Amino acid sequence: MKILVPVKRVLDANVAVRVKPDGSGVELANLKMSMNPFDEIAVEEAVKLREAGTASEVIVVSIGPAQAADTLRSGLAMGADRAILVKTEDALEPLAIAKILKHIAGTEAPDLVIMGKQAIDDDCNQTAQMLSALLDWPQAMFASKVEVSGQSVTVTREIDGGLETLEMDLPAVISTDLRLNIPRYASLPNVMKAKKKPLEEIAAESLGISLAPQLHVVATNPPPERKPGAMVDSVDALVEKLKSEARVL
What we know:
This protein is an alpha/beta fold and 249 residues long.
């Protein structure tokens, strides 16, 4: 079984986000970039399936600038077998990304696509669902447990009311939630081995897919600053404080 894992290069989760002075977006210059945390979970799950003998190959794919190769090398160091970089300098929307991934899936013919449920830079949570629709494959979003048996996969997913278990025929698309696993740290020997693993580069323009944006960002603004907390001496003072705050709101 072959598993395809899309990964995205995003601003590191530990870096404080700053909005550009002109409000055109988030400042990225000279800041640490890393693999999207939900995608790390997807890579970990795919590698675990291969280590268990369920999968024979794990392919990581990223869509972005040349620097995204570093993100792919991180996936290779975690245990993926090879990587594909679809190079573009444009900031792509979920539908364009899903169309590119459909093309890659058509070329590689994976049995399973495992990807993060969303990216922490835009929080769209759309690409996996769009890819499933374009491929006409079954989908299971927000997976907290994945079990593959033969030509089917059983996924436990988190919903508002608790847990839901789905069984799907392969091929299928799965998106990962936080509680699926804990991603491993890549050891130094594996980081060195990753440099020798194959990484194919494809120009996005060569795929014949329209990447024109459908949305226009009017402005980006930082969230309002939180008001400082206040100490009170008694329950009565707390109740009165809450009443006064309610009147202000």
